[in-house]
Design brief:
It is built from twelve helices and 13 strands. By secondary structure, it is of the alpha/beta class.
């Protein structure tokens, strides 16, 4: 018989260390960044090496574990180091003794207890705690999180789009890689712009040619999306959009810094290409402002940063009311995929998978999310289905931040 209450006994950050093999020096293509408007900050043109031998790499990951007095555990990770510090130094003592199943109550109290809670590292810490508590809740009820949220066997699998960060933008290599990915089932691909205003007209021409090359190589049955990582201004984005509308991009992402709501709104009014942003949204209130302004059609809030599963659900409700898509940013996959699996595909059609990053991001996880023909099967394991692989953990220590 399950206990009626579950009191939190401890909140722990565990640092894991191990190693793996990876190609040396390959897949290092940079994306445009806001800083690259400065000549002395812009990197040299990237060239993919002809030879990339396998070399040993070290990796470190931090996992959050919440334990109850009754011995039940919730696990989530990897979590960002910045979030781990706040969890340990500012949230841990507040959480001890709280009712672990009262996820909504705990979220609200954590959001109210600190005057800096509305954004940044504090909200990232709330996110980590919320996600770990959802995992604990799933283990308590012996069911996956997506089923707790209302999803069923019909959406046990979620479709991913492949984020191609790091792959070379050299025209021939670009064409070869995108076709290779299509063959693996990635029928939705996001590529990252390599040039911005600091590169002048020649850079804009390269950004336009990149879109054309992808469409010609992939044909009309693959969605192509583009990310400018806040590295453009409005005039630049308008020029690019006018030139590439004919190639039907599914969206243009983060053309500007998230503070520039009016630039997003003007771009949305001026192009048929859907406009996306949101990985740096902290809370439902930012989503509401952008949707009310008609500034975006795709919300990309990240449950690792925006407030966790609990907050992402509220954002999904807002998106459904405005007939917008919620397609979470893929800093991690677990929480995002379970939320998407629990919502209507009209609102949440896709999950982001950063192909290069995720190849080793879950090094310590026995059951890492792995796409097959563009789909991730969430399975039937309770919670988020995470289990650490002791065979890969060379060093394990609980960390405290004083």
């Amino acid at each position: 018989m399950r206990p009626a209450q579950l009191k939190i006994r401890d909140v722990e950050i565990w640092r894991l260390e191990g190693g793996y093999q990876a190609p040396e020096g390959a897949n290092r293509q940079y994306q445009i960044r806001p800083l690259f408007v400065w000549d002395d900050q812009r990197p040299a043109e990237y060239r993919e090496p002809a030879d990339a031998p396998m070399r040993p790499r070290r990796t470190v990951a931090r996992y959050l574990k919440i334990t109850t007095e009754e011995g039940l555990e919730g696990l989530y990770g990897p979590v960002d180091a910045e979030a781990a510090v706040v969890v340990d130094r500012q949230l841990r003592e507040f959480l001890i003794g709280k009712e672990a199943l009262a996820v909504e109550t705990i979220w609200d109290q954590l959001h109210r207890v600190n005057r800096h809670s509305r954004s940044s590292h504090y909200m990232m810490a709330i996110s980590a705690v919320d996600n770990a508590l959802w995992d604990l809740r799933g283990r308590y009820y012996d069911t996956p999180v997506y089923r707790l949220l209302g999803g069923g066997p019909s959406r046990r699998k979620v479709r991913v789009y492949g984020s191609c960060l790091g792959y070379s933008l050299e025209p021939e290599l670009l064409r070869r890689k995108c076709v290779e990915l299509k063959g693996k089932g990635f029928m939705h691909q996001k590529w990252f712009m390599g040039w911005g205003p600091g590169d002048g007209a020649a850079g804009l021409a390269k950004n336009i040619a990149m879109v054309r090359n992808l469409r010609e190589a992939l044909g009309d049955d693959v969605d192509i999306m583009f990310d400018a990582y806040m590295g453009w201004d409005l005039n630049y984005a308008l020029g690019w959009a006018k030139a590439v509308e004919q190639y039907r991009p599914r969206w243009i992402e983060e053309a500007f810094h998230v503070d520039k709501l009016e630039s997003f709104a003007e771009l949305s009014r001026s192009t048929s290409i859907p406009v996306a942003t949101g990985e740096h949204f902290y809370g439902r209130w930012e989503v509401m402002r952008f949707l009310r302004a008609g500034a975006i059609q795709v919300v990309q809030s990240d449950p690792e940063w925006c407030g966790g599963v609990s907050e992402l659900l509220k954002m999904a409700a807002l998106c459904s009311a405005f007939d917008a898509h919620l397609i979470p940013h893929g800093h991690n996959v677990h929480a995002a995929a379970h939320v998407v699996a629990s919502r209507s595909p009209m609102t949440c059609p896709l999950v982001e998978l950063l192909i290069g990053k995720m190849a080793h991001y879950y090094h310590f996880d026995k059951h890492p999310p792995q796409p097959v023909h563009g789909m991730i099967d969430l399975g039937d394991r309770p919670g988020f289905g995470m289990e650490l692989d002791d065979a890969k953990i060379e060093k394990r220590e609980r960390v405290r931040f004083g």
